[in-house]
Amino acid sequence: MHIHIAVHSDYDFIVDRDKHVKKELVKRKIEEEEIYILQESDRKIGWMRFNYFWDHTPFMNMLWIDDEYRGRGYGKKVVCYWEEEMKKKGFESIMTSTQSDEGAQHFYRKLGYKDAGCLLQEGEPLEMIMVKKL
């Protein structure tokens, strides 16, 4: 598997699958180098996007891997890759979140993320905030 920073030619791949962010924002996030593309041979199989919580703590917003490629360790590889990139940039901690009704919380805990709090919005499952020291 190969991981690279998203470029403009990755735009259609991302917006076809990412229904959680406005299309206009995807262009900006590509320009800001806040999306990584996962590729197996010549096929794009997923992406990971992030931003900065409080404008200074890297926060992973979304990790997506196409169904047929799940369960092969690609998620772990891209998270570890991102963590190393953030460490190289001098960050000491990173964050992510997941809903309490999703299994991703167990995935992140295995990677060393610790529960740090939660957010409850009306009509939504509990959002668990997770932190990891680099």
Task: Pick out its properties.
134 residues, alpha+beta, Aminopeptidase, 7-stranded mixed beta sheet
How would you describe this protein?
By secondary structure, the protein is of the alpha+beta class. The protein has a single domain, classed as Gcn5-related N-acetyltransferase (GNAT) (Aminopeptidase). It has 4 helices and 7 strands. The protein has helices at 11-17, 23-31, 74-88, 104-110, and strands at residues 2-5, 35-40, 43-53, 57-65, 93-99, 114-119, 127-133. It has a 7-stranded mixed beta sheet with strand order 1-2-3-4-5-7-6, sandwiched between helices. The protein is globular. It starts with a strand and ends with a strand. The mean pLDDT is 95.
Brief summary:
The chain is of the alpha+beta class and 134 residues long. Helices cover 28% and strands 37% of the residues. The chain is globular.
The CATH class is identified as Alpha Beta
CATH superfamily: Gcn5-related N-acetyltransferase (GNAT)
| CATH fold node name | Aminopeptidase
The ordered string of helix (H) and strand (E) elements is EHHEEEHEHEE
Mean of pLDDT: 95
Which structural class matches the secondary elements? alpha+beta
**How many strands, which pairing sense, and closed or not: the largest β-sheet?**
7 strands, mixed
Report low-confidence residues grouped into runs of 5 or more: none
Give the tally of structural domains.
1
Number of helices: 4
